[in-house]
Amino acid sequence: MNETSIDPVLLAGNRRSAANYAARHFLWQLGDGVATITLNRPERKNPLTFETYAELRDLFGELKYADDVKAVVVTGAGGNFSSGGDVHEIIGPLLALAAPELLLFTRMTGDLVKAMRACPQPIVAAVDGVCAGAGAIIAMASDLRIGTPRSRTAFLFNRVGLAGCDMGACAILPRIIGQGRASELLYTGVPLDGEQGERWGWFNRLAAPDALAAAAQALARQLAEGPTFAHGITKAMLHQEWAMTIDQALEAEAQAQAICMLTQDFQRAHAAFVARRKPTFQGN
User: Fold this and answer.
1) pLDDT tens digit string along 184-225?
2) Other Cβ atoms closer than 10 A to 143
3) Domains in the chain, please, with CATH?
């Protein structure tokens, strides 16, 4: 095949639109490059079920192919983010399972975190009210968090006789708020309120409850309007460099930045700077 006849879309192969995605266990909305996932069981503070875990895992895994999604907002309906795993629909049934089946479940929940960290789009968690257990983990696995003064984040695993090392908490949480503070939350299960969460670096910022959705959407739109290919590289490097030495990180970043310098967005930014105007990025 002649090189000039290669269709880049054909090479990508798996690219597809997420506009018509039909969510089954949460609400889904896509507009202006921003996808919004809303956990929607407000009468019970938006608990998660086996099906919710699995669908979120699969959706975030698919987003790497969705070129019409530039950023993602995750939030909850009715003034709460999520109360975590449903006591009746998850905790109860787990008591009847043998070790191999329990391991299948815990690996599935970990796969949700893997999928969130591996999808190239920045994820903004908009956290109001209760954010507990697996709900706190979903917020933790997001790239950015906006809270409210009434947010209450709690890692409650020890309260039900389990270890705090759930869904990557012992690896990721210390990198966000520090080892000592993470240890306190994971050993005690005490809730972290909004203002303390902002001081500790858990929240990037706070908003009034009635302004939370708008603040999260504004941040997500800002990210969606940026150089989204480069954002994906930044996210990958932030994740991968946890396991690198400084020398390895410097080499990885040198290679990553060289790739970004080949993009048209880099050329657009230069042309806009010369013309003294704001660049319009297109993610390529």
Assistant:
1) 999 999 999 999 999 999 999 999 999 999 999 999 999 999
2) 20
3) 3-224 (3.90.226.10), 228-275 (no CATH)
